[in-house]
Amino acid sequence: MAENEKDTERILKELAALKEEVRKLKVLSAGFEERYDEMLKKEEAFLSQMNEEIEREITVMVLGAIRKTVNKETTSLKILRRRIRNQVRHQVSKEIKKGIDALMPGLKTLVNTEVRKVSLEIMNQLKRQTGRQLEKEVIEQVKETTSILREQKEDSERRAIVDGLTGLFNRRYFETKLEEELTFAKRFRTRLCLIMFDIDHFKPVNDTYGHQTGDTVLQEIAEVVKPLLTSTDSPCRYGGEEFAVIMPETDTAEAFETAERLRKAVEERAFYGGETLIKITVSLGIAEYPTHALIKERLIEKADAALYSAKNSGRNNTQTAAK
C-alpha cells in the first residue's frame, strides 16, 4: 500500500512537471498572449477533467492493485503516464499551432505595412535630399530655355518687320505703322508727314559695278538716314532703291528741313564701287496729313507724286506735294 502511494505521488509530480512545461510554453508564446490565455483556459479545463479521470482511474487501480502484483501495477501506471503525457503534449501543440495560424495573417499584414512605411520614409528622405538639387537644375534649365526661346521670339519678330539688307523697317511694317500713326493723328488731331525718297540713277550703278556694290550703297544710305531722325520717326525700305520715313506730329516745314539734311548728307558721302568713287544722290517727296491727304493710300500717292516731281525737276532735290 505504501508503494502504491509512492507511485501515485510520482504520477502527481509528473503531472506537476507537465504543468510546468505548459507554463514555459506560455512564456515562450508571450507574443500571442490573448490567444494563449484562451488556450491555457482550455488546457486547465482539460487538465482538470483529466485529473478527475486520473484520480478516478487511480482510485480504481489502487483498489484493484491489492489483487495484483507490484510489478503489474507499476507497468500500468507507466503506460498510463506516457499516454497522458502524449495526449497533453499533442493537445497543447495542436492549440498552439491553431493560435499561430490564426495570428499569422495579421502578423504578415503588420510586417508588410511596416515595411511599406519604412520604404516610403526612405524614399521621402532621398527625394528631400535630391529634390533641392534637382529643383535647382530644373529651374536653371527652364531659365536657359526661356532665355533662348525669348531670343528666338524676338529675333523672329525682328525679322518679320526689319529689312534683312539695310536694317531699316520693311514694307510690311511700313503699311501697319503708317495706318496706326494716322489713326493716332486723327484721334488727337495732330499732323503727320511722310517722306518718300529714291536713289538717283541707281540702275546704272548696279549695271556698272554689280549688285554687290548696289547692296553696299543701300546699306550705307540706311547708315546715313538713321542718325538724322528722332526716336519717334520710322525709317523704312519701301522697295528696291526706294525708302520712306514716317514722321508723327510733324508738319511740312519740319519734314522739309529733315529731308534736306538727309539729301545733303547722302550727297556729301563718299560711295565706292571697288576703287572708283561713285556720285550718289537722292530725290525726295513730302506729303502731310491732313493737308494733302486723309487716308493712307492717298498720302502715299501724294508723297510718291512729290518724289517724281523732284526727279523731273533735275533730281537731287526735295519737293512737297501739291494740295
Can you give a write-up of this model?
With 323 residues, the protein is α+β, with helices and mostly antiparallel strands. It folds into 2 domains: 2-122, no CATH class; 171-320, Reverse transcriptase/Diguanylate cyclase domain (Alpha-Beta Plaits, 2-Layer Sandwich). Helix content is 70%, strand content 12%. The chain contains 8 helices and 7 strands. A 5-stranded mixed beta sheet has the order 2-3-1-6-7. The longest helix has 92 residues, at 70-161. The mean pLDDT is 81.
Q: How is the topology of this model organized?
A:
Elements: H1 2-28, H2 33-65, H3 70-161, H4 171-188, E1 192-199, H5 202-209, H6 211-225, E2 234-239, E3 242-248, H7 252-268, E4 271-273, E5 276-278, E6 282-289, H8 296-312, E7 318-320
Parallel strand pairs: 6-7
Antiparallel strand pairs: 1-3, 1-6, 2-3, 4-5
